[in-house]
Amino acid sequence: xxxxxxxxxxxxxxxxxxxxxxxxxxxxxxxxxxxxxxxxxxxxxxxxxxxxxxxxxxxxxxxxxxxxxxxxxxxxxxxxxxxxxxxxxxxxxxxxxxxxxxxxxxxxxxxxxxxxxxxxxxxxxxxxxxxxxxxxxxxxxxxxxxxxxxxxxxxxxxxxxxxxxxxxxxxxxxxxxxxxxxxxxxxxxxxxxxxxxxxxxxxxxxxxxxxxxxxxxxxxxxxxxxxxxxxxxxxxxxxxxxxxxxxxxxxxxxxxxxxxxxxxxxxxxxxxxxxxxxxxxxxxxxxxxxxxxxxxxxxxxxxxxxxxxxxxxxxxxxxxxxxxxxxxxxxxxxxxxxxxxxxxxxxxxxxxxxxxxxxxxxxxxxxxxxxxxxxxxxxxxxxxxxxxxxxxxxxxxxxxxxxxxxxxxxxxxxxxxxxxxxxxxxxxxxxxxxxxxxxxxxxxxxxxxxxxxxxxxxxxxxxxxxxxxxxxxxxxxxxxxxxxxxxxxxxxxx
Length: 494
Fold this sequence. Notes:
Elements: H1 2-41, H2 55-63, H3 67-72, H4 83-86, E1 89-92, H5 112-122, E2 127-132, H6 142-153, E3 158-162, E4 182-189, E5 205-212, H7 215-224, E6 230-234, E7 246-250, E8 256-260, E9 266-271, E10 277-280, E11 289-292, E12 300-305, E13 311-314, E14 317-320, E15 323-325, E16 335-340, H8 345-355, E17 363-368, H9 380-384, H10 390-394, E18 398-404, H11 408-420, E19 426-431, H12 438-450, E20 456-459, E21 492-493
Parallel strand pairs: 1-2, 2-3, 3-4, 4-5, 5-6, 6-8, 7-9, 8-10, 9-11, 10-12, 11-13, 12-16, 16-17, 17-18, 18-19, 19-20
Antiparallel strand pairs: 13-14, 14-15, 20-21
Helix pairs in contact: 11-12
């Protein structure tokens, strides 16, 4: 019995063991096949993974390369042959210079015009950006007309043309770029709109620097630009024709107007219901007359001189030199910048009365002017006798003193001002460049003692800016306070 039972157990064991071996072999074989299949799918190290990407992604990558490098991708393989020619084009003449070592003005001798013509001929995709910087043109050359015709047909979105030396009047084909969203011109003559009406239906940003444009042409542009938000007139040439020295602004969409260093006799903002900021350079001519008739949403205003130059009207409030006539309060302005010479009582008095026009002011920039001959200097008692100022009592939270030299007059005003500002949170003092003494440091500590313990007092240094008070991109609406550009970023907390 035992031998029979043992044989039965051995047969069962053998059967189970064989079944186990078959199952083990099958599972092992399947795992091996899986591993082989996995390894067969693995790509060799030299395999081109980028070429496996879809055309839309490759086009986006190529469009971000410099034109020279992007064009070279066409020789990689048949897969890449036509990708660059259909990718969005960002053409910048500054990046076409060999090695980017020589100045751009010498590029005309390197065939830069032929290079640009070749690129526009070979590339058949959309053009997003076209920039010329310091390219020399003797006049209204055919290649420039051909380029603008080409760009207009291909839906260009941004054009920036800079000529050095300035060129003659630009081709009228520039006015036919319907897809334009941004147009920046430097050193040129704006095309005449007498024969062709502009087609800038999508234009949002217009910047004219050292460019001649007549008042009638600007008016025609504003009429056709239903989406224009930012207009900058920078350093217009002083040989402007008589008819080009008066600008009338009428735009329902305009939000920012910047005018610097331009020989304009009159700037009249007749109707700008959505205008949020009006920025005027500190180097405007003495005879400039600024008249704001209708701009109910204006929140940012400056620089305004409390002294002897330009006449400024906003509503029924008129500022002309040291004469100030206040008839209405300007409740919309939240950020204000003024220039004052506190060595004269008349300017100091005008500044204090002018601040009463802005009861809801939140940020104030005061730029100190310094003339050698002081007519009459106010003392501390003069400031102590001043009536209350609404913005100081209720809303003013940020104040900047620029070009501060720390004489007794400015120190008295600073003490008066910070002691009256009940809600002051940030005070930034910017000493005049290359002016710093031990006495000034001691005086700044005195000012620090006058403010609330919750007020932060900063010491900053001035930046050198061509506009004297803000940078050329001050029309950028994403920056709430454009006057802060005149300060360096490394502030010192006192």
